[in-house]
């Protein structure tokens, strides 16, 4: 892990001293940059906890002696953020679960089997990630509107419509990423299970699935983020306030020239926390998970 | 998009591996040939063909129609107009303005993201355990922050009257979003803040994966730090670098939420429009759906070119497709 210490040559004392100084400078720089990077998040939480008087002061301070949950209370009470939060959570959870299952099956097909057009399909999943989703919102709007006439649960202003489109747009990346994890599992394990008489279904769910689980966790972060952060679909498809999700609902707080910053920061904090928790939980797998793209 | 799988073709013999190098250590003969992969791909196809492939086709189709408010809500029949939307677009000065500022904005974001990400990746290899963990977790936080909340927080920090930055700089009353490039710069900062962690962590992982013995050997041979970097580390890191560069290009070319939220849908008189927001506004604000679709098609084509480079880079890095 600590490569630098291994590389350090045995040199004369003076050089060692210089190294110590440069090491200290590097450490300080890293700490300063870390603090700068995290500062906006600190400022967000801090402002969410500040009383109104301090938020609207033209003399903002980087601390507060009077932390209050008023902004959160207002967000939940007056602005109905609890409902939006729940909507976001429902959509994201459904997308994560379905996208995990579907992408697992596809990833197995693309790594464990050889068939015609396998490469073509893979390249398509890659290309699909480049498509500007916002532009696709135009035809999708009409599609969702038409779906609504046959299946009202998935039409405009329904959570179902958001589940569908976010599922579709999280899949290509999920499959691509999960493929790396499936590939990393030695085929000999399945081979052994097959010799022991396990059928394909058993191999898939009893052998492969548990082994891919950590990768699935990392992949699910990205599916979660796709659904949780989605702003453009929610803004376009959801035309009533009851079915709004967090990002689009946050726009409600924006008023020309008199933004309720306390409320906005409280809502932003609520929106950031689930993602942050998710990230920290799977951070070990993130880098290896991007393996589909970043490895070798 | 993913419509080419037809069941009848599955059981045919597999084609020879296209390029059997790099990760091609998997025994081809060990793979089963059956209908199984089609069953496994079926759920994906059921979701992606109607919700991704079909809309993509519709996007293309729309761009050749006259499709505005009467067609969208009154159900009037849309007329086929050939390349009319495209010629309208290419003859419009605003389109060229938006295209050029999209390219400039994206390029600046890519360069800044890579510079910051790479510099910090190198820094990470030279610091102690605690500063390293601190920086990694701070970066994780910025990475995790949704585009929406990142935008709101930075807007608050740079708020005209109540923002911390204006207070510290003694510039209260200064509106950062009033001037075109200052607004772009601010959005750019947020984009970089969101995306440098990916570059930093990827490159750091890449540097860490270089065997110590290789660097040791270079050092024993008397190579300077620069020579070691240029001739030992860079070639090893090149595949990761390429991927990180192209991913950044694709992301930064498609920035939507930050621009839309921070500049209020494209800035004063549309001065901060980028292609993505432009397409959206043309369609949903001006009800000119076919023109919006045409912008979307042009954007997709530009990104497709980038993607071709991406796939070539992946192939070269030994990724087995």
- The CATH H-level superfamily of the largest domain in chain A is MetI-like
Q: Strand pairing plus helix content of chain A: what structural class?
A: mainly alpha
Q: Cα-atom Rg of chain A, whole angstroms?
A: 24 Å
Treating each run of at least 4 consecutive H or I residues as one helix, how many helices of chain A? 13
Largest interface: A-B, 115 and 125 residues
Count of DSSP E strands of chain A?
A: 0
Strand percentage of chain A lies at under 5%
Shape of chain A: globular
Uncertain residue segments of chain A: 1-11, 291-296
Considering DSSP H and I runs of 4 or more, what fraction of the residues of chain B is helical? Answer: 55-70%
| Helical segment count of chain B | 13
Helix content of chain A: over 70%
Radius of gyration of chain B: 24 Å
Major sheet attributes of chain A: none
CATH fold type of the largest domain in chain A: MetI-like fold
Q: Specify the overall morphology of chain B.
A: globular
Number of strands of chain B: 2
* Largest sheet, strands/sense/barrel of chain B: 2 strands, antiparallel
**What's the number of domains of chain A?**
2
- Classified by CATH, the class of chain B is Mainly Alpha
Structure report:
Chain A has helices at residues 3-7, 13-49, 52-55, 70-77, 81-112, 118-128, 133-150, 159-183, 187-195, 200-229, 232-237, 246-250, 261-289. Chain A is an all-alpha fold and 296 residues long. Chain A folds into two domains: 12-68; 71-286, MetI-like fold (Orthogonal Bundle), CATH 1.10.3720.10. The two termini of chain A are 18 Å apart. Chain B has one domain (52-316): MetI-like (MetI-like fold, Orthogonal Bundle), CATH 1.10.3720. Chain B has helices spanning 36-62, 69-73, 84-90, 93-125, 129-144, 147-157, 164-169, 180-208, 212-220, 225-253, 257-262, 275-284, 289-316, and strands at 65-66, 79-80. In chain B, 42% of the residues are buried. The model of chain B is unreliable at 1-30 (pLDDT under 50).
């Amino acid at each position: 892990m600590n490569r630098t210490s291994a590389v350090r040559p045995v040199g004369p004392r003076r050089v060692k001293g210089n190294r110590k100084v440069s090491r200290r400078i590097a450490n300080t720089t890293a700490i300063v940059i870390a603090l700068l990077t995290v500062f906006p998040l600190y400022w967000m939480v801090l402002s969410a906890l500040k009383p109104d008087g301090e938020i609207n002061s033209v003399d903002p301070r980087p601390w507060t002696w009077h932390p209050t949950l008023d902004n959160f209370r207002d967000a939940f009470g007056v602005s109905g953020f609890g409902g939006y939060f729940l909507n976001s959570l429902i959509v994201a959870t459904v997308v994560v679960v379905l996208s995990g299952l579907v992408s697992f099956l596809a990833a197995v097909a693309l790594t464990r089997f050889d068939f015609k057009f396998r490469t073509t399909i893979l390249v398509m999943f890659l290309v699909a990630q480049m498509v500007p989703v916002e532009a696709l919102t135009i035809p999708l709007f009409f599609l969702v509107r038409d779906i609504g006439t046959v299946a009202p649960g998935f039409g405009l202003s329904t959570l179902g419509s958001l589940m569908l489109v976010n599922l579709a747009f999280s899949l290509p990346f999920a499959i691509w990423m999960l493929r790396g994890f499936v590939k990393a599992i030695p085929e000999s394990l399945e081979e052994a299970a097959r010799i022991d008489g396990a059928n394909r279904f058993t191999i898939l769910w009893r052998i492969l699935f548990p082994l891919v689980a950590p990768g699935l966790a990392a992949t699910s972060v990205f599916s979660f983020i796709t659904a949780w952060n989605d702003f453009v679909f929610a803004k376009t498809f959801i035309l009533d306030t009851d079915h709004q999700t967090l990002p689009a609902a946050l726009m409600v707080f924006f008023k020309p020239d008199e933004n309720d910053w306390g409320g906005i920061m409280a809502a932003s904090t609520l929106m950031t926390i689930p993602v942050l928790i998710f990230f920290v939980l799977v951070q070990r797998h993130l880098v290896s998970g991007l393996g589909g793209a970043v490895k070798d | 998009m993913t419509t080419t799988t037809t069941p009848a073709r599955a059981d045919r013999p597999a084609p020879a591996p296209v390029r059997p190098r790099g990760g091609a250590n998997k025994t081809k003969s060990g793979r089963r040939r059956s209908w199984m992969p089609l069953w496994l791909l079926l759920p994906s196809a059921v979701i992606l063909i109607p919700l991704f492939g079909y809309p993509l086709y519709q996007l293309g189709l729309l761009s050749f129609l006259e499709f505005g408010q009467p067609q969208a809500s009154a159900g009037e029949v849309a007329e086929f107009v050939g390349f009319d939307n495209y010629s309208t677009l290419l003859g419009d000065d605003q389109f060229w303005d938006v295209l050029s500022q999209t390219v400039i904005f994206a390029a600046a974001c890519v360069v800044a993201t890579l510079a910051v990400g790479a510099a910090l990746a190198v820094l990470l290899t030279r610091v102690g355990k605690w500063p390293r963990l601190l920086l990694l977790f701070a970066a994780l936080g910025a990475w995790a922050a949704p585009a929406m909340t990142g935008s709101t927080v930075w807007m608050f920090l740079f708020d005209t009257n109540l923002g911390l930055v204006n207070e510290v700089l003694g510039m209260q009353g200064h509106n950062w979003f009033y001037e075109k490039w200052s607004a772009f710069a601010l959005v750019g900062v947020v984009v970089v803040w969101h995306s440098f962690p990916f570059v930093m962590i990827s490159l750091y992982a890449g540097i860490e994966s270089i065997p110590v013995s290789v660097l040791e050997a270079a050092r024993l041979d008397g190579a300077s730090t620069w020579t070691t970097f240029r001739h030992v580390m860079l070639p090893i890191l090149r595949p990761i670098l390429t991927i990180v560069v192209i991913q950044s290009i694709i992301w930064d070319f498609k920035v939507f939420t930050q621009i839309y939220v921070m500049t209020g849908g494209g800035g004063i008189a549309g001065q901060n429009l980028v292609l993505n927001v432009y397409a959206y506004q043309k369609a949903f604000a001006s009800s000119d759906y076919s023109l919006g679709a045409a912008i979307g098609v042009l954007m997709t084509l530009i990104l497709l070119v980038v993607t071709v480079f991406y796939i070539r880079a992946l192939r070269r890095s030994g990724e087995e497709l």
